[in-house]
Amino acid sequence: MVRFCAICGRREDEVGTLIENLCSDCYRELKLSFPIPRELRIEECEECGAVKKGGIWEKGENVILKVVEDTLRKSLKIPRNVSLKVEPTLNEDELTVKLMVSAEGRTVVNEKVIKLRKVKRLCQRCARIARGQYSAIVQVRGKEGELSAKEREVLSEAFEIFNKKFSVDRRGTQVVDVEDVRGGVDVKFLSHQAAKFFASILKDRFGVLTKESYKLIGVDRSSGKRTFRLTISARMPKYKKGDIVEIGSEHVYVIDVAKDVIKGVRLSDQREISLRVNDLEKQAAKVRVCKLRKARVISLRDQVIAELLDESRGKVIEIPLRQIPLDVKEGDEVDILEVEGKTYVVTGLIKP
Ligand SMILES: [Zn+2]
Ligand SMILES: [Zn+2]
């Protein structure tokens, strides 16, 4: 039986298999003729590339394509069974809009090239940075006046971790300014959240002592909410994990640092002790920074002395058994350090 397109009346053997009783031209016309505009205007941040959608600035890979897709789907009220894809063209100012619908195992496509007009602006965040506005400041200070080279290293490591972990792709940079000041560095942040996160890295990873304070800076006229500036003072610690504190003839391996107390392991007998920072100052305790080396445990059989092979120096060392951490076994590779001519095993003392 010969079939005809229900709209244009052409014969199936002229126009190809009908879809839902229509030729593909009529089907396309019926299902995919949306008033796609010839030109679309988008606002793009000239600093960070964010694109405005509704009232919100969005960032990320292919953000323009996604924003155009969402905008078209919404404004043209495209039903769910029609797929809409926006693709780049060789021309940077043009995009291909592809509409597709499937029925009876076949797919009908409608394609149109539209012009893209980019209006360059500054997004909210970049505008605030440009104005030098910040809502939180972390004041990093050295333990003795200026930041030492070592302390600056700590700071740049903290920045590295911050940039990796604080989802930068969604929120963009949060650091407004890094300024050298007397005694250290001031880091200004857009949000309280970012400043707190940065301070927590300094505190948790590097034992930096932090203290937060808030100051009222104004009242938001539209919401009536009070706005506060957060200041976090971050003082580099005198003692940090892995240091050796020398008190008289005793050596204490620092395993944890709190505000005014340090926890350590007394290396002469592996006892865990707490020391007040104030007391340490009074006792004129010295801090020794020691390099760790590797050694292999040869024998623990003797009840008194352990034998270790110090591979890098090619010699065997003997250490009193009471100075060996309890979970060390024969054959283990362990961390050792040398201070004032004495060698200690410190493997596993700092809990991760
Ligand atoms: Zn037709
Ligand atoms: Zn921006």
Keywords:
352 residues, alpha+beta, 4 domains, 5-stranded mixed sheet, 5-stranded antiparallel sheet, 21% helix, Nmd3_N, Nmd3 N-terminal domain-containing protein, Nmd3
Word description of this protein:
The chain is 21% helix and 40% strand. It is built from 8 helices and 21 strands. It is α+β, with helices and mostly antiparallel strands. It folds into 4 domains: 1-33, no CATH class; 37-121, no CATH class; 132-235; 244-345, no CATH class. The model has no long low-confidence stretch (mean pLDDT 89). Strand 8 and strand 9 form a beta hairpin. The chain is elongated. Bound molecules: zinc ion (2 copies). The site of one zinc ion has 7 residues, from helix 4. One zinc ion is lined by residues 5, 7-8, 10, 22-23, 25-26.
Q: What's this, in brief?
A:
With 352 residues, the chain is α+β, with helices and mostly antiparallel strands.
General form: elongated
Sketch the major β-sheet: 5 strands, mixed
Strand order of the largest sheet: 8-9-7-11-10
Q: Percent helix among the residues? A: 10-25%
Number of separate structural domains: 4
Present the secondary structure layout:
Elements: H1 12-15, H2 24-32, E1 39-45, E2 51-53, E3 56-58, H3 63-75, E4 83-88, E5 94-103, E6 106-121, H4 124-130, E7 136-141, H5 149-165, H6 168-171, E8 175-181, E9 184-189, H7 192-206, E10 209-219, E11 226-235, E12 244-247, E13 250-257, E14 261-266, E15 271-276, H8 277-282, E16 286-288, E17 293-299, E18 305-310, E19 315-320, E20 333-339, E21 342-345
The structure holds zinc ion (2 copies).
Residues 5, 7-8, 10, 22-23, 25-26 line the site of one zinc ion (ZN).
